[in-house]
Each structure stands twice: as structure tokens, then as C-alpha cells.
Amino acid sequence: MNFTFVSGDATLANGDLLVIPLFEGELGEGAPASLASADKSLEGRLRGAATQEGFKAKADQSLVMHTLGRTTAGRVLLLGLGNRARFHPEVLRLAAGRAAKTAQRLKVTSLVVALPATKAPADAVRAVVEGLELGAYRFDKYKSSAREEKGAPKPTKVALALPEGTEKSRDVEDALALGKRVAEASNWARDLVNEPPNAVTPTVLAEAARKSAREHGLKITIGGKREIEKLDMGMFLGVTAGSTEEPRLIHVVYTPKNARDAKRPPLALVGKAITFDSGGLSLKPTEGMVDMKTDMAGSAAVLGAMQVIASIKPPFPVHAFIGACENMPAGNAYKPGDILTSRLGKTVEITNTDAEGRLVLGDMLTWACEHQPSAVIDLATLTGACIVALGNYIVGAFGDNDGTVNEVLQAARTAGEEMWRLPVSELQKDALRSEVADMKNSGERWGGSINAALFLKEFVGETPWVHLDIAGPSNSPKERGYNAKGATGVGVRTLVEWVRLRTETQATEAAEAPAKPARAARGARKSARS
What we know:
alpha/beta, eight-stranded mixed β-sheet, six-stranded mixed β-sheet
């Protein structure tokens, strides 16, 4: 989509569809100028139709009305935002997603969005841009009907009308640019996850990462089985043993241009990349295997986030570590009862070959922590137990470093990705106790997501670490807001916000740092005079 800002009366801007988001209570007196102007042009019919249809601007409500040539736009779309007192940009992002889907159904090519008056105009701009780009997303490349409709019009031009009293500023322009980059990266990640497993193998995923890195000025190294063997990643090698597809070891690096910044401790991002998970010899039932092309959603989110991070240019390095492979049954596949030796040297008894993601992640986390990061986050579609606990729309967050966990949760709130902290309790550790090795890869059914997090914790040492179990939110079971049914790209926005938060924190610290030596120098001179 091409976005521009317009000023003045939104009803006079050129566009096929005029979109007016409204809070509850704004249909009466004190209505925003865009609604009042549109209703006046329609001789009061817009408010009348809203009353007749029961539109009260509650969240998720919408109303479309033909203008019959009385305004520049052919139709007006009213979007409910709910209670203003409980407003969060995510509400606007979801509403914008509905607007994009409505525009597609109406086959309009241009929109005018009358932005609502909020305390933070830049946040509203970004939410609308992301919602529209994400809401317009469709994955239909394998449908014959979609190929036939390739020439059908889609919304490509969007005019953003700032509310009265709000001037176009550098902040809102930057918010537009950032929102567009984040949404495009999220859609890129969605494409990877939605592709069938025969189209995205470990090799194809690695090549997609290589192409992305080159386009965004990132350094990338890709290794195969030989490099994995050299790194003594016995757990990774065990998982990939049964597949004819070669595994891939992917390392993407952003490095600041400033030599001093380049030497700072990096942030590390680790993404699970099982491009297809059959369950191995602990074979999944058919209904549990159909969506297992999505078991690499963590890696897609990490790679998508790296695209945006490259444009943010934080004053510290950021590394992405991905171990890509399939988990398949075969005569040479790893078996229940096997004992694998990790890169860290810990031995692991295999009790369930369908608990494979934590094995690859354990070796990747060890490798990531050897780079001495200031913090590490892993994203993984790790456990069905997390879906049982939190459902399809909430990410489970684990970690015992309160400061780092709270940073990530704050970033998620800002990004509009719902997360809930779950415990990493030593009380569950007995579930992983083995009689023949240092630990088991899978324990009892109860507390399954906690058991998985405890397993990963063994491989990070003292490094501040957060584990995000995205098993539910990585794949939406139905159309909702800006999400279509299928891959969501969850995690991209949170990772970008986390890096931005760290960047802002370090910028503040750098700005304050020169004052301390100056005060010390003045004190030294005063002491010398006395």
C-alpha cells in the first residue's frame, strides 16, 4: 500500500472508501469532524442508519453505507473502537484490519482513513498502517480461483487524515515508515509459515534467510550437517537423523558501524525451525500432523524481526541463531530410549521423539550464549500444553530474570501481542529426572509447558533469558481483525519493540554519561585549588 497524509476535511479527500473509526458515545453531540461532515453531506442519513442498525461503536462493530454520490467516496465505513477510557493502539490495529478486509470485499482500490483523536497520534498512525497492511494479507497462491482473480482490484492507496489540531510531524512520519516495515516483515514471516512443507524445507528456509539478509545489509553464515557435527550438537543431529532433507545451521548478524558499539554485548534471538514435525517414531495422529508445517514459526518471526532491526540500527549487535531440520520417522531415526549428548556436554535420555523442538533449541541456546549476549530470547511453537493453558491468542512467557522478562512483556504490550508470564518452577524439575542420563527430554503430561521451559533453562546458564511459547498464537484458527486464518507472524512486533526499548535505554544512558565525568573534573579542580 502507498500511504500519504492529508489535512482538512477527510470527506473531501480522494478515495473510494471513507473509513471513520469511532469511540462509544461519539455518534451524538461532540462527534468527530469527519463524522459530522459526512453525516451533513448525507443529510443525517449516516447517523440514522447507525441507529437503525444498532451500531453503537462497540469494539468489533462496523457499518457500511453507500453515499450515492453525495461525498467524494462512494461508501462510508464506520468502525467501532469501544470505550475510549480503555483504548489501546491494538484496538485500532484490529479495526484497521477489518477495514482492509472490508475494502477487499468491496473491491475498492483507495481508502481515506479519518484518524481518531488520541493522546499519542504517532501510535495511532502506526497502528492503522500495521492493521491495514496485515489485514490486506492473503495467502492464496495455490488456489486456482485466486490465480483467475489476479487482476481483481485491491486497496493500494491510503490517505491518512490527521484529526483536527494535529499537525504532520517527524514523529508521525517515522511511525508510518516503521509500521509499514513491521507489517511487511510480519507478512513475509506469514508467507514462510503458510507455505507447504514440501515448499519450505530446511534448505529453502536457509536460502530465504540468505536473500533477506543480503537485502537488508545483514551478515549471514549457513552451515550443514558437517558444521553441526563440528559444533558437537548431538541433540540437533539426533532430531534430524530420520529425514532425507539436510539440516541447516543459520546465523544472521546485525553489527553497528561504530567500532565501539560493535564490541558491545549482543542481543541473541533464537527461533525454532522444525520445517515439518511428524513426531518422529512417537508419531503424531493425522489430525495433529496436518498443521506441522507451522513448527518453524519461531524462526520466521526471528528472521522477519531482523529485517526491521537492520533499519532501526541499534547501538549494539543483534544475532539470530536458527537450527532448521525435519523430524521424521525412518530406520535411522532417533528412538525412545536413546541417549544424546548436547553441545553443553549434558546427556539427555529420549522418552518422546515428539519433544524434539527443545532438543534443537537446547543446542542453539548453548551456541548463542557462547557469544556472551546481554540477553537471549527464544521463540518456539513448543507445547500443546501452552495452548491448553492460554488458548489460541496468548503467548506463554517464561524466565527467571525479572528485569528481562518484564522488558519483553512491556514490549509485547506496546506491540499489541498478548503475553502471559508462566512460572519456571523448580518444583517441576523432578519430571525431567532420568535414571540413566543427566535428564529426560520429556516428563509427565502435567505442567508440560513448564517442563519444556525447565529443559531449555539448563542450556542458558546465567544469561538473562526469556522463552516465548507461541504454539497457540502462531496460527489463527479463524479470521479475526487483521489476522486471516493461518499464520499470524506473531513475535515480529514484540522483538522489534524489545530492541527499540533497549536502543532508547542505551541512548538515554549515553546522553547522561558525559555529565558525570564533567562533574568529577570540576570537583578535582576545586580540590586542587584548595
